[in-house]
Automatic annotation (TrEMBL):
Subcellular location: Membrane
This protein's record includes keyword Glycoprotein: no
Keyword Membrane attributed: yes
Transmembrane segments: 28-46, 52-71, 78-97, 112-137, 144-166, 172-189, 196-216, 323-342, 354-377, 389-410, 417-436
Protein name: Uracil-xanthine permease
InterPro entries assigned to the protein according to its UniProt record, in alphabetical order: NCS2 (IPR006043), Xan_ur_permease (IPR006042)
Protein family according to the UniProt entry: Belongs to the nucleobase:cation symporter-2 (NCS2) (TC 2.A.40) family.
Cross-referenced PANTHER family: PURINE PERMEASE C1399.01C-RELATED
Topology with respect to the bilayer: Multi-pass membrane protein
Length: 457
């Protein structure tokens, strides 16, 4: 076959694409933009809730993702965006202040830097766990994270996110249904590029409907400048590492949250592995992915951004498009960095109605839970076994139940500490798996190929 005929041969999207360059540069750039849109709505929501800068958040997400890919040898198609798990910590350390109307809308600039310092130090816990894995080996550590633990955790991640999708949809069901409908139609009946760009097309179509129905306010766009430096000095965690009581309190409040996000990380990496058919827990190794996530979080905290975490939204995009090349994720990170210097673009994105975000999230969050189910099924986890059934039940009920109550709050040396539902579920799942008899799971880190979807290699 000639070189020309090779280049013009039709591409089989159904089997997944691991080298996006075969699609051509224009298509790869558009795919990167789609991943940026997938993470954008949730990523900017965290600074809007905490009072941090949206531009700083975009910069930290982009730089953190590139750092993660560098440490993971460019193998894992993961995007690092803002972590929702840390919202409770920010609410305690740096609660939003009331405005003239009594509504909590003003950023607590005096305490934000201390909260960010706590975020920075929480990232160092990742580094510690990464070192333990490097010392004791992945097989010994992975006995604590068999599919009966990771599967329900992945399911819980999607289900915990689900209420936020519905809340956004409730702001405008018309826009949500249009966005969701376009995503489904493009993914099921679309051909070629239409099939692999459902998210971007869903945003565009529903945004046009919002324009037609007069639901877009352009006032903020006209008043925004074209260029601005994204880092805000008053929130940088580096300035708050001073040994003061406020700093110590922030550490005790925020660092324990890393227990939740590390478990979330392992679940997300398992989900990405199940989606792409490659076991990233083995190669490049969960020690490297934890190191990348942790150092990205530390960097974000020092620069005044929220904690980073591997993003389920982008895992959903991987599952929908079947484009698994990490290059596309890195392009999305570069776009995020460039756009962090443009306040006018930030203003444009902020005009996207919440209903559109809800419609897109509706399918993405469900996809995460579905991947968790797939992980359990493909590993042939025996749920008729009472041991496995108990572990799964405790994880699911703890994650959803405690999450609905705002987690579990207790005092350490007079300082209030909050554990999220996901952290509690992960801890209980790991403990039950270690204590209950019958743990026969063995993680094989041999040279098997094509078995990553089951995580049994």
């Amino acid at each position: 076959m000639s070189e020309k005929s090779k280049n013009t041969a039709p591409i089989d999207y159904s089997k997944g694409i691991y080298d996006a360059r075969t699609l051509g540069t224009p298509r790869v750039l558009v795919l990167g933009i789609q991943h940026m849109f997938a993470m954008f709505g949730a990523t900017v929501l965290v600074p809007l809730i905490t009072g941090l800068s949206v531009s700083t958040t975009l910069l930290c997400a982009g730089l953190g993702t590139l750092l993660f890919h560098f440490l993971c040898k460019g193998k894992v198609p993961a995007f690092l965006g803002s972590s929702f798990a840390y919202l409770g910590g920010f609410a305690i350390v740096a609660p939003m202040l009331p405005d003239a109307n009594g509504e909590a809308t003003i950023a607590n600039t005096e305490m934000l830097s201390y909260a960010c310092a706590g975020v920075a130090f929480s990232g160092l816990l990742y580094v510690l766990v990464s070192g333990l894995i490097s010392v004791f080996g992945i097989r010994r550590i992975m006995r604590f994270f068999p599919p009966i633990v990771t599967g329900p955790i992945i399911i819980s991640i999607g289900l915990i996110l689900a209420p936020s999708a519905i809340s956004n949809c409730e702001t405008n069901w018309l826009l949500a249904i249009v966005a969701l409908g376009v995503v489904i139609i493009c993914n099921i009946w679309g051909k070629g590029m239409i099939k692999i760009l459902p998210i971007l097309l869903g945003v565009i179509a529903s945004y046009i409907v919002a324009l037609i129905t007069g639901q877009i306010d352009f006032t903020a766009i006209s008043s925004a400048s074209w260029f601005g430096f994204p880092i805000k000095a008053e929130a940088t965690g580096l300035l708050a590492i001073d040994g003061s009581p406020e700093f110590i309190s922030a550490l005790f409040t925020i660092m324990p949250i890393a227990l939740a996000t590390m478990m979330e990380h392992i679940g997300d990496i398992a989900a990405i592995s199940a989606t792409t058919g490659k076991n990233y827990i083995r190669d490049p190794g969960i020690n490297r992915t934890l190191l990348g996530d942790g150092l990205a979080t530390t960097m974000a905290g020092l620069l005044g951004g929220p904690a980073n975490t591997t993003y389920g939204e982008n895992t959903g995009v991987l599952a929908l498009t079947k484009i698994y090349d990490p290059l596309v994720i890195r392009l999305a990170a570069c776009f995020a960095i460039l756009l962090s210097f443009c306040p006018k673009f930030e203003a444009i994105i902020n005009t996207i109605p919440a209903g559109i975000i809800g419609g897109i999230s509706f399918v993405l969050y469900g996809m995460i839970s579905a991947i968790g189910v797939r992980n359990v099924v493909e590993n042939k986890v025996d749920l008729t076994n009472s041991r496995n059934l108990i572990i799964a039940a405790v994880i699911l009920v703890s994650a959803l139940g405690f999450n609905s109550l705002g987690g579990l709050t207790f005092s350490v040396l007079g300082i209030s500490v909050n554990l999220s539902g996901l952290a509690i579920a992960a801890i209980l799942g790991i403990l039950l798996n270690a204590i209950l008899p019958g743990n026969d799971y063995e993680f094989d880190d041999g040279d098997g190929t094509g078995e990553g979807a089951s995580l049994r290699i």
